[in-house]
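Q: How would the structure tokens look for this protein?
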Amino acid sequence: MKIAVVGVGVAGAYLLARLKNQHEVVGFERTTEENHDSICAWGTTKGPMDEFAKKCSLDFSDYLIHDGKKMYISMNSDQFTIKLMGLCTYNKIGLIKDMAKGCKIHYGKAPKIEDLESEFDIIIDSTGFHRSYLPRLSRDFHLPTYQYKVQYENGVPFDDFYLKPFSSMSGYFWYFPLGKNLAHIGAGDKNRNHIVETDAFLKKYGGKVIKTVGRPIRLATPDMCEPFYHGKVVGVGESIGTVYPLLGEGIIPSMTCADIFVENIGNNERYRQKVLEKFAIYSRVLSFVRSKMDSKFGMLKNFADLISIYRYMKKNEWRFGMEIRMADMMKVAKA
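A: Here is the predicted structure in token form.
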């Protein structure tokens, strides 16, 4: 088949790599090749990424920047650490470009749907938050985010990952190491204090800002993001809600979604069912998060959600790259 992949981010580039040997694939990226970048914090987990990279005949270790050992958490007056087991930062744009290598990509172009429909058998909407080629959502939910890439000259503020959840879990501030003297610092917040918090950290610890980005991140879950397909268009990744709501992390879920698409290509209804099944827990996670954000959380009322999330994450420690402890989950619930 002739397939258009619109949006050459992590999901789009991975699909180009997975499909190029069996189909004629063409990528479309709205930014120019010179400005093409990946604007998240570049955090992921080594185990799953090793497997994804192998499917593209690549070695994930070639892209590894920082291999985390512990995460510092600052929650109100409570300070604690979480043992990491694979959480890392990596050269995300480098991996994206290498996955897409050898494929025809039109940069600086956002084609009209009618032009794509006349030329391609399938149009993959991997445009992330923009969801440019699928119908608008009636129940969308997203957070604004803001981030600096910072260079430090006199030592970094932290030697590993650092997170500071905001009150009522309205969002959190992050510090992700990028090697010897670089880091991504940023925040996402429902209450829109994300820029204030990021600037406050920058003022406290200094550093030279070498890049600034900001965009919304979709936390609406797949069950809120239907339809997944419309005409020749099929959504993959964040465009259909594959961001884990508790952490705002979408790299591994979006690549997992891409795998489901590849396994069910040509059968849109089966693809839809498999996605809903795979990400069913996300709606429960979002319910927990929103109850905290809206100050409607009750330990008795929401305890079943808390236990379900704990069991899911504990069972998938390898995927999340960190030790999951009930004591830490209780700290989050009580914050």
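The longest helix spans residues 299-315.

The chain has a mean pLDDT of 95.

Upvote if useful.
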